[in-house]
Amino acid sequence: xxxxxxxxxxxxxxxxxxxxxxxxxxxxxxxxxxxxxxxxxxxxxxxxxxxxxxxxxxxxxxxxxxxxxxxxxxxxxxxxxxxxxxxxxxxxxxxxxxxxxxxxxxxxxxxxxxxxxxxxxxxxxxxxxxxxxxxxxxxxxxxxxxxxxxxxxxxxxxxxxxxxxxxxxxxxxxxxxxxxxxxxxxxxxxxxxxxxxxxx
Length: 200
What we know:
The chain contains seven helices and nine strands; from the N terminus they run H-E-E-H-H-E-H-E-E-E-H-E-H-E-H-E. The protein is globular. The two termini are 32 Å apart. By secondary structure, the protein is of the alpha+beta class. The chain has two domains: 1-41, no CATH class; 42-185, 3-Layer(aba) Sandwich (Aminopeptidase). The longest helix is centred in the middle third of the chain and has 13 residues, at 117-129. It has helices at residues 2-8, 20-30, 35-39, 56-62, 117-129, 144-148, 162-172, and strands spanning 9-12, 15-18, 46-50, 77-84, 87-97, 100-108, 135-140, 153-154, 180-185. The strands form two sheets. The chain has a seven-stranded mixed beta sheet, sandwiched between helices. Strand 6 (100-108), helix 5 (117-129) and strand 7 form a beta-alpha-beta unit.
């Protein structure tokens, strides 16, 4: 049992804290028949909706504190979120710039990843913001296929709207060195439902 504690958690002051992804792996391998019961820890039904401007602070406090400590611009940003019961577990932002819409700050809490929540929140953002307008983003290299499945396509950096390109260059520097890729999604692309595989 001590070996499991060492693999799954950290000891601190006489207590053992478990990392959720280790518990998930242990439950899948040791107790495969009870995986559905393990999933029942999700507190309540899962819903996806747009946050009100008053709720944006909640996304900053509960989610983005773990993800580059992002802040929302109440005038130019729209935030879309996934809830498990009343718990905020994922968020995605669409920001209006003078010359285009930028998608960024897509984040799901570690213990809820690879269960389809990022896809759900992105589908709502695309429906609400990308129905009639082009969406731009900087994708992490390892997520290009995921965003590609939602209709985003790789583009040269020079095809980004100027204000989006300048904002990102000012904050981050050389795109190749930080392993991000510019992408664009045109309106009218129908997002297919995922067929098997691991949801994002």
